Amino acid sequence: MSIAVDFRLRSLTLAVSLAFAGTCSAAGPTGQAAAPGAAPTPAASAASGPAASAAAKPADPSAPKPFADVIKDAKQQDGFVPVWRKDDKVWLEVPAALLNQPLMFTANISQSVGERGLYASQMGPAWMVEFRRVGNNIQLLARNTEFRPGADAASRQTVQQAFSDSLLASAPVASAAHPDRKSVLVDASFLLADLMGYSTRLEAAFRLPYNLDKGNSSFEAARTDADITALTTRLHFNTARLPAPPLAPSPVPVPPPPRTVPDARSFFVGVVYSFAKLPEQPMAARLADPRLGHFTEDFVDFSGDLKPNQRVHFVKRWRLEKKDPAAALSEPVKPITYWLDRNIPVRYRAAVTAGITEWNKAFEKIGYKNAVVAQQQADDADFDNMDANHASIRWFVGADVGFAIGPSKADPRSGEIMDADIGMSDVFSRGARRLIVEEGTATGQAGTQSHHQHDAHCDYAAEASREMHFAMDVLEARGELDPESPEAEAFVNAVIKDTIMHEVGHTLGLKHNFKASTTITREQLRDQAFTVANGISGSVMDYNAYNLPLRGEKAGGTPNNTTLGAYDYWAIEYAYKPLAPQDEAAELKKIAGRSTEPALAYADDADAEGGPTGSIDPLANRFDLGDDPLAWQQKRLQLSRELWQRVQARGTKLGDDPLRARRVLASGFRQLRNLPEMVAKYVGGMVTVRDLPGTTGRAAYQPVSSARQREALAFLTSGLFASDSFDFRPEFLTSLSPDYLEWERARPVSVPDLVVGLQTPALDRLLSAGTAQRVLELPNYLPSAQRKGVLTLDEVYATLQKSVWSELDGGREISPLRRALQREHLKRVQALLVRAAPGMPADASSLLRWHATRLAADLKRASGAAGLSVDSRAHIAESLSSLNEALRASMIRS
Predict the structure, then answer these.
(1) What is d(CA 343, CA 394) in angstroms, rounded to the nearest whole number?
(2) Distance of CA 881 to the CA centre of its chain
(3) Angle 842-862/769-777 helices, nearest 10 degrees?
(4) Domain containing 97: what range?
(5) Short-list 642, 635, 632, CA closest to 479
(6) What contacts 356, CB < 8 A, 6 or more positions away?
(7) Region entry Disordered: which residue ranges (predicted)?
(8) What's the whole-model pTM score?
(9) Are 638 and 559 part of one and the same domain?
């Protein structure tokens, strides 16, 4: 019944609808049919007009609202990308002309946690981006600049298909187009997101899953002008809960949660986002040359298939143009301006400024006057120099921090540097020595950024600060410097100037030069007039040690760098010298061709570090001084010994800081941290030369003489491996108290641990596969006449073993320090006997077994020696047993 009624009702409704439709469409106001072709009545005309269409097609509810409706009562900040603000709402007005056009987008850290590498005043990532509209969404697209096509359409299409861009963010269009400007509004809250992946860095530091909490994140400020739009955000990161500590210690150390915030589950990170205009006409690019060091913009060029190497390297440099191109010396149209942040302590600002403007000496040599300018940010300035158009020097602090960093951001199309922000931690205050808690380790270096991305991170400030404190400790122990005197303050300011020169050099585009120190002779280092005029190194881009005299040696040159070196002038000339386009290639070739001059020796981080197998060039080092790095390391050991002797003789006095003696002990060990590697790499070492093929005829690899290799081995055996190099009085060690006001207190100092920490890198280097291969192959690099008397691998292993186990000859007592060294040597020999190290030559494995067999015989013979302590007899018995087990074991071959 209900179904039949429903059907009849539907039929009736349909009939009425059809009748009504027919009447309206075919009849006039009286209901009579209109004649064919007759003009419609006014009522009919009105019904068929726009109003009728609107009634027939209701407005799309998803269509953006009118521009004026969205920004009603909002305040505008006009500029490159205009900003509109109303209460807590922020919109970006994206101009139509900006769509699909390249611009620079940067993210810099203005506030952070303050520990484990997560600090304020740090430059973040930068991308060349474009706004792209897709339907009713605006995408922020990071353009792929790593792979570049040629000018033809086929090449562009091929590269575009092969390599993808990246989507950084997207947001719905918030308004219809402006009726005049044709721009649209976008809700800026897409910036309240983890665009730079900071949560990954947080997880790496604390091993906790921190997430961005958009609901409690906000915008703090916005600034815009014709070239930039910058927005400062306050991003909230949190985690729901902290895990309970393990019941038993984990075999893999687990970092603790953040200790610098009130609640480790929640903290804020400040990020300054900038949209910056790129030059309409890219700067003319300048090709890099490997004979000297500049940071580069690198990409793969698919414009042709004739080049054997498609990689292209543009020098990163600022755009400099003379106001008067015809003048020999002219001011630039736009100088390179560095803003001193208002948080730099007033007492250090003069030193910072001096470090910046010192570079004008190099620019004057190539025709620029006042090319580099320092400006002080006013206390009431309305801009944040973390934005993308203020190069800056910023002073920051942290709970465990100790470094400076000098990164820059460049236009990928040309290498033109657009922005740079030097961050310097507060490591030069005398109280910074409190960061060094015990046993030669600095808490500030655990978990810091990985250096370097070498074009960004730089340890120089931290290391220079430690060098400074060591020098002050030595001079104070000699009675030549009062830490509270004006002379000490001048000393600190000189180090700050040195460090700022170094970091500004990075932001001008210069890489490290770790061979520059070898261009100054030891005699010149003792000449005050020479070091004042030329510095103590060939470049401020080296990590330069302090020029301290030995005890009883007459003081001579300045203790640290005060001016640019010859290499610095050369590197600036190559990057910035004005050259006519038609002459540029020939002129650059001529400039780079000066690389054969001794004063212009160059080696970068890769030369000093050497990758997995270690550096092979004994002249490429950090924190050496003078033309003989081996002699410098011998001098450095003498200085540390002197410091230890003086601090032990001084004893403790009323009013001393409880940690003073402990810091001085650690300072002496810290100065030796590079000694084992730098000395051991003489063995099998090769001096490298950066000539281009066919330019000079010099050998690219020049083997270290056998005499120098033997001298390095002798220094290790007589200095580093000798017990009397590290002799401390019991009353001194028992006086090294902790700070009892702290809950987490230092343990008693373990001198054996400190000494073994120095000795094991030397053992690792001498027993490595890389050293074995180079020593075995070294004769191949020498003419037949020079192969007589060459250092052999058999001699290396025999010398090392004899020095480490010298007490076995004659059955002498073995001290605890020597027993520790012998265990470390035996541990490495055992490992090499039972498992072949990757890359270890077969001849090296044979020699290791040969000498291990002889060591076993020596141990067996010494085990019967009379008069030995129980400790020595037990050590010999245990060593013999362990070595025999390794000799009997089957080799596990990789």
Answers:
(1) 7
(2) 47
(3) 110
(4) 70-242+259-276
(5) 642
(6) 338, 372, 374, 393, 500, 504
(7) 30-65
(8) 0.88
(9) yes
